[in-house]
Amino acid sequence: EPEVTQTPSHQVTQMGQEVILRCVPISNHLYFYWYRQILGQKVEFLVSFYNNEISEKSEIFDDQFSVERPDGSNFTLKIRSTKLEDSAMYFCASSEGRLSRYEQYFGPGTRLTVT
Amino acid sequence: ILNVEQSPQSLHVQEGDSTNFTCSFPSSNFYALHWYRWETAKSPEALFVMTLNGDEKKKGRISATLNTKEGYSYLYIKGSQPEDSATYLCASNNNNDMRFGAGTRLTVKP
């Protein structure tokens, strides 16, 4: 069964460093998403991506964040200068179509620890 | 309601019991309501996507209903089994934003 994959499973970085979190969405899916969950808090939407551009983003997704689909399979989230409060589990997801109609499939997550 | 709220926060039932949880969500600019099953150390697994007022969906022993006018959805599990133990998460798609509830953690005791 096709699945969303994410690498690495755990990333430790120092404050101020750049990190890139990688995702491989399901191959025939057209919409891609990033979410995060800070420990003990709700899952939060960061950004959605369609047709090689951002379609929606939340207030959390500020200038330090960027997303890219550098090739036909990978979907990446870059955090330019990490802060302590960026420590969270980051989930990638993908769907065939818009969330108003289609299920989305989540990856296993990347746990980011900023020290 | 601006946020998505779920109740109860946790629930312990005996094997064979039927149970239900509630998800409250903003009714304005509503597009869809998503339910997920989230087992520990795994990723959320999609259960249902519901869009229309009065929608009812069923998958095995799990079913869900949707009331978009008052902004709530119920998830029902009939004859709970230990393997149903998980966190059940709902998320509301409004204005192309996705807002998640905190989840209901279900524990089914054999």
Name the features:
heterodimer; A: 115 residues; mainly beta; seven-stranded mixed sheet; four-stranded antiparallel sheet; 11 strands; 50% strand; globular; B: 110 residues; six-stranded mixed sheet; five-stranded antiparallel sheet
Q: What would you note in describing this structure?
A:
- The complex is a heterodimer of chains A (115) and B (110).
- By secondary structure, chain A is an all-beta fold.
- In chain A, 0% of the residues lie in helices and 50% in strands.
- Chain A has no helices and 11 strands.
- In chain A, the strands form 2 sheets. In chain A, strands 2, 4, 5, 6, 9, 10 and 11 form a 7-stranded mixed sheet that branches.
- In chain A, a hairpin with a 2-residue loop joins strand 5 (43-50) and strand 6 (53-57).
- Chain A starts with a strand and ends with a strand.
- The model of chain A has no long low-confidence stretch (mean pLDDT 94).
- Chain B has strands spanning 5-7, 10-14, 19-24, 30-38, 45-50, 56-59, 62-67, 72-77, 86-94, 97-100, 104-109.
- In chain B, strands 2, 4, 5, 9, 10 and 11 form a 6-stranded mixed sheet that branches. Chain B has a 5-stranded antiparallel sheet with strand order 1-3-8-7-6, with no helix packed on it.
- In chain B, 0% of the residues lie in helices and 58% in strands.
- Chain B starts with a strand and ends with a strand.
- Chain B is built from no helices and 11 strands.
- Chain B is mainly beta and 110 residues long.
- In chain B, a hairpin with a 2-residue loop joins strand 9 and strand 10.
- Classes of the chains: A mainly beta (115), B mainly beta (110).
- The interface between A and B is medium-sized, with 23 and 21 residues.
